[in-house]
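Bench notes, afternoon.
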Amino acid sequence: MDLLLPVVVATIGAGTAIAFAALGELVTEKSGVLNLGVEGMMLVGAIAAFAAASSSGNLWIGVVAGVLAGMVLSLLFAFLTLTLMADQVACGLALSIFGVGLSAYAGLSYVNIVLPTQPVWALPGLAALPVIGPLFFQHQPLVYLSWMLFAAVWWFLYRSRAGLKLRSVGESPSSAHALGLPVNRVRYLATLFGGAMAGLGGAFLAVMYTPMWVEGMTAGRGWIALSLVVFATWRPGRILLGAYLFGGITVAQLFAQSRGVAIPSQLLSMLPYLATVVVLVVISSNALRIRLNTPASLGLSFRPAS
């Protein structure tokens, strides 16, 4: 138990950034928009958060800056794809490449700066509980926020009228438009939420989880978040569990390296991405499940009839 508890706690921390990004992409895709620029938005959110936090001395200002940076990039994507009707796949890939390059350039002057470590928030009365306390009540504040956001998004999607409208837009935008729903406005808001969550995931990495700036520090987490949405068949609860699964694989390879396991470190570093490929292959083998759960208009532009 003394060995297992630190591994599980580290797994939750390692999966939180992926969870934020995947949750945002889930809401975006539920509206019928496919944004492949998650990796770029996470990186821009990370450098914006780190720069703001290091300049102001306040980590929370950095978190807000990361969220806003992710929203700005997602707004650019929404304008190109929803207003100008550009191809969503091409724009998403371009956004990801743009974000990688922009973050690398903007972060040149922040490479050797280290932020103070954010202490964990031990919830009074609960953190002292055996086993349960360290597992669930001794984490950094954004970990608790991720749990609250998942609960809120689940309620929004399946228990609220606004969530029903969002899902109807994703399933049939023409029918939703015929019923008087502002399809593009709903999609704009969903895309902005996805950008905010990607930026929040990047901010968590840069100011709390690491906390330092390294070029390309997301290390493919944005792409893992995209695959995680498919892996979870567009269900919020499954996304959270899947994020911790990938986080656990990342932590496992780090623990293996620290304990001198006789496996090349390069091979161990491949494990999270190898797991991503394996999971996608397994999920894709059931075409019926994918077809039944995929939003029907995913990736398709919609122009209201004049």
